[in-house]
Design brief:
With 202 residues, this protein is mostly helical. It is 57% helix and 0% strand.
């Protein structure tokens, strides 16, 4: 019986250098698999160029022109991506600062990032979801949430966790210092229009 480990490994074939057709094929495959932004697709294509190189017998790659064609065809839509990504992260309990960082990393411009910031109610709802998920403030009790922790160091840690989650300092303090969960739930709804902008994005 042959020892599989002693068999010489076959060298992997080196992929051919890219040309315009292959670059577009890679881009099409990427947008078919992932919801993406112009910036993320550009980064992907640049990485592929670094990995595989470019066929010197063909004109230099024009990534901006390819991105423009894809935007015209509706294959990439930064406004739609920014809205969908913001809503997803907000449902996970992340605050505006973290959402803004994520969109910025995806190459979303300042105007679109600003357009997708939370309303005050949405900001409070996200902070509540984050606190519940991470067991912060009154949610810290095991099994039966009750009063917020009285230890100052614990409160500081809980506030810091909410800040790392992208939440405004005022919202973080309110949640951690709330008497109980009911107070937080009332605070989320009290006297706020659904589209009122958040007062402090952290």
């Amino acid at each position: 019986m042959h020892d599989e480990q002693n068999r010489p490994r076959r060298a992997r074939p080196i992929p051919p250098q890219l040309d315009d057709a292959q670059l577009e094929e890679l881009a099409l495959g990427y947008v078919a698999r992932f919801a993406t932004s112009t910036g993320k697709l550009a980064d992907y294509l640049k990485r592929k160029l670094r990995e595989r190189g470019w066929d010197e017998d063909t004109p230099a790659p024009d990534i901006p022109a390819l991105l423009a064609r894809f935007a015209e065809r509706g294959f990439i839509d930064d406004a739609g991506y920014a809205q969908a990504r913001s809503e997803t992260l907000r449902r996970r309990g992340l605050g505006d600062r973290r959402i803004d960082q994520t969109l910025n990393q995806a190459g979303i411009g300042a105007d679109l990032r600003a357009a997708n910031r939370s309303s005050e109610r949405a900001a409070r709802e996200a902070a509540l979801a984050f606190a519940r998920k991470r067991r912060l403030g009154p949610f810290a009790g095991r099994g039966d949430p009750g009063a917020a922790p009285s230890d100052p160091k614990t409160r500081e840690k809980h506030i810091a966790a909410l800040l790392r989650g992208g939440h405004a300092l005022g919202n973080a303090r309110f949640i951690v210092n709330a008497v109980d969960v009911a107070e937080i739930e009332e605070w989320v709804l009290e006297g706020i229009d659904d589209d009122e902008p958040a007062q402090d994005h952290g």
